[in-house]
Write a structure and sequence with these properties.
mainly alpha, 2 domains, four-stranded mixed sheet, 4 strands, glycosyltransferase, transmembrane helix
Length: about 525
Amino acid sequence: MASKSEVLGSRTTRLTDLTAAIAALPRWSVVLLAAVAVRALTFGNPVVHVDEEFYFVTAQQMLHGAVPFVDVWDRKPVGLFLIYLLPAAFGVPAGIWIYQAMALAAVVGTALLIARLAEKAGWGRGALTVALLYLFMINFADGQGGQAPVFYNLLMAWAFLLVVPKPSDESGDRRRIHRGTLAMLIVGVAMQIKYSVVFEAMFLGLWLMWREVKLGTSVAHVIRRGCLWAAAVWLPTLAVWAVFIVLGHGEPWFYANFGSIVDRLSDPPMVLLRAFLKIALILGLLLIVSGLSRHVPVKDPSEHPVRALFFGWLIAAVIGLLVFGSWFNHYALPVLVPASLCCAGYLGGTEFGRKWLTPVMLLASGLGGEYTAWSAKWHRGNAEQLDALADGIGHGSGCMYVYSGNAILYSYTGRCTVTPWIFPSHLSRERENGALGVDQLEEINRIFTQRPEIVVMRPTYYGERMESHRLAVQRMEEMGYRLRGRWPLGDLYISVYELPAARKAPPRFAASKPS
């Protein structure tokens, strides 16, 4: 019988062999396998997050001729909905799998770029660690699906890789200037996925100009190049605006993209405090370790400006997070790229970081992120529950109004919409009051004049405008809506109301149909 020391030695040998085998694999394969492992729980689930449901439905509406910001309203830039066009063309459920595969590719690409950026800063020993850290941490911040930053983080990492300073940089090097222009253009494209990138864009533009000064560029050339880079970053947005002006929708586009952001109300103080504390919990350890990385010595003086660029990027991302407020969990996603990157210095450059902190952070983020994704699925529901709810609603030709609940029901039932404000909380949430370009109560009244065949309503939620809720209930009572049934979706029961046949409106064309 083997002794305890022999058993322990055998186990240690197997663990060492496994570690060596993993280390021998190409980096991309390790990152891909890790990404599949931590995201597999959500594959095929159409109710990962209400935002993603809405992006998918909006893309379907666009494929059937709807004009964003006019026929279907939101304040997100049009680029986000363009990403979802390909998945939406395949309908449901195939399109759900496709957009989640696209999101998987985006996070793998971003993680690999983070590793490459770490090497550029002299943090090569921590490169793979922080690539995996990013993959694991995004589940903590509701990034297990296809949130906007999941896609534009890839563009931001690429843009920063293009401008990493080199010892051979010269003021008159046209290729270096062109790389800066391309980087700012890429950031401009990222802004058309979500405008929260603007603070990182401002930092990168100012850093590029500061770099010109350090290289001895004349003031006139610094100003000229700064104007070129500013034009590059705003070119995608101006081009989109021009398209909408030509279509005759320039004013609705401008209000939805900019005016409505200013008009939106703030959440109550306790809601903001709770949200901020959750964001702080997600980012706290990463920011602390990133700060420790500043004290890791450089091996070559050329690494100083590279590290300064990355720490500046992190500060700009945190400022952007703080300024935008609201602080939903997924607002932390843009910060995770520079925060994970800057952890590489301490995790790879110190013995304590390599030996103790790295396994603790990877294990905690991996298990914790997976638990967070599982918890979100338990609370929000799954494909089987959504299918049952959609079957309960039925696939008739009559229109539907999802007052509160899940926008993806439009895709799963094929029923037509009765309002451009199909994201449910736009008309039902208190903080959206006065920030939609339409009065919430007037729009709810207008909706019921169209006699939608089906009305969907979840239980009341914190932050709901009770005037909206009472009006919707009152109109349903006046028009004789009857409860068809209640179906579970996650930890909620969704109520479905139907209009009696004698009072139904004539059938209309359904903008989105199930495949």
